[in-house]
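step=predict obj=F-box domain-containing protein n=434
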Amino acid sequence: MPAAMPAATDAVPLTPHHLPDEILQRIFQEVFEPQKDADPANYAYLPAPEYLVLSRRFYRLLRPIRYRSISTSADARRTSALLGRLTAADDIRTWLRKLVLFVSPHFTALQAFALSRFTNLVELRIKYEPLEQWIHVPGTILSAVILDLWHAITRLPRLARLVDKISERWEIDPHLPPLPSLKSVSIGLLTLNRAVSSLLARSGVSVLSLSIKYAAEVLDHSFLREGALPWDTLQCLTLVAGSRGLPVDLTVTLEHILKQASTLGEPPRLRQLEVSVPQAQPGTYKNAFAVVLDLAARVSCEELVCGVLGAEDLRPDPTYGQVHTLRSLKLTTDIELPENDSLADLIDMLRCMPNLNSLVLRCLSVTSEERAPNETRLDSDSSDLTFAIAYPHLTVLLQYLTSTAVRAFHVKSAEGSARWLRDDPSKPFERQAW
């Protein structure tokens, strides 16, 4: 007779050692690698290496992941020593994909050469911290550091993303070769001189983020000649005012970019325009938002992202034109729909965008303080009548959107999150939790 099959209770229990190599690496990738835009851990504070000594197999599989993302130290001597060790370690040097590099006034050509050896580097973030050490540094030293640094950067054949937000004006070698792999760059607006602009254009950069500071004091007509954006390849432009950015800086910057785009023979086309501003008093960015709409229309923008804006910032102006190319609008606002004329202003502003397909609204509140029933949240499963009674202002906004081309409407507020979707503008919306 054939041998009896072993009982299920006799099965050998599975352990991590039985998992395929690919599964193990994906599990530990969550442990060793930073999430999204988070900085890598400092080299001295990488996750403890006990995982590496579990077995020879773990050691072989996990070392490449552990050293894929590294941050140097703000201490210049430690950074120099670390760069030397990484350069000498051929295996770690080839594994490295993401690096945060702290640059001090003591940054040398030798350190720049070490940086250029990380030929598999995909993302580089440069930090000039602590900032106090740069206050009394002569301009000649800063220029020397920048020249060495950028010579090294252009020798990184796989670099796709560069973040360097130094606020001062500086020069690079105008004869630097392009970086065909470079697609995303984040720099300070004031560093966008002729040589940098040329390098970005020749490299084919498609995503550009400009940090705005002191723009109103420094920007002049030379920006139109020397600080040209890489319009031929640019798809996404982000302007970041930051906590120290003044409203006038944003408005002046937008006006200069609008003038620049207007001087081009062929109007440029942007897939996305994003304007990020710190929270401020209502009406602070009203003039800036008017220029944002003009710029969006000029560059045939398809997606507009703005935040943080108040109701008075969005209040339409008679000079507002139609932005026919806009398909998506994302607003992070301080709006409370029941307050004053917030709802009417929002609807009037949306009339400037007749072809909008998607609207995402993040606001403080969509119902009045006097009536905020806990039992009827945006994401609750309530009837249309109950919802309309709880959120009359939002219901009016939905009625307006029903008559437009919008197919997706998302709301996130203190009362919860929800979305309304439809396949065809002629059909009614269906509400879902978001």
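step=describe
The first strand starts at residue 69 and ends at 71.
step=end
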